[in-house]
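Collaborator request log, item 7. Partner lab (contact: R.S.) asked for a structural prediction of Phosphoribosyl-AMP cyclohydrolase to inform their binding assays.
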Amino acid sequence: MTYIAPPAAELDAMLDVVKFDASGLVAAIAQQHDTGEVLMIAWMTREALRETLETGRVCYYSRSRQKLWRKGETSGQIQHLIEARLDCDADAVLVLVNQIGVACHTGRRSCFYRAFTPDGLKELTKPEIDPNQLYHKHN
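Returned to partner:
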């Protein structure tokens, strides 16, 4: 599947519908388009959502760094947009993606790798790649 960006005039009209919070953010859930696997949740500003919809490469807003964060810019673990959806309240975005590599900074495919159980949190998956390799860190 190849993503096709909407025309600029349509894009502006669509972005006007999104209900960004008081900080200018909207929750964005990334889901693998073909398997339904939920990969991660992050935040988008209007600018991040616009860039995502214009380019087809998913862009978020890093609250810790206070700047746009293009998924995979340092790790190489890119998300290609297949489709973006807006929820019924217009305050959350679902991005259906083709995830290249892992989505989680811990080296796992999904950020949702722990389950609440009667015995406490249970780790469901192990890292597929060492996080230090992802970000080229040396100890």
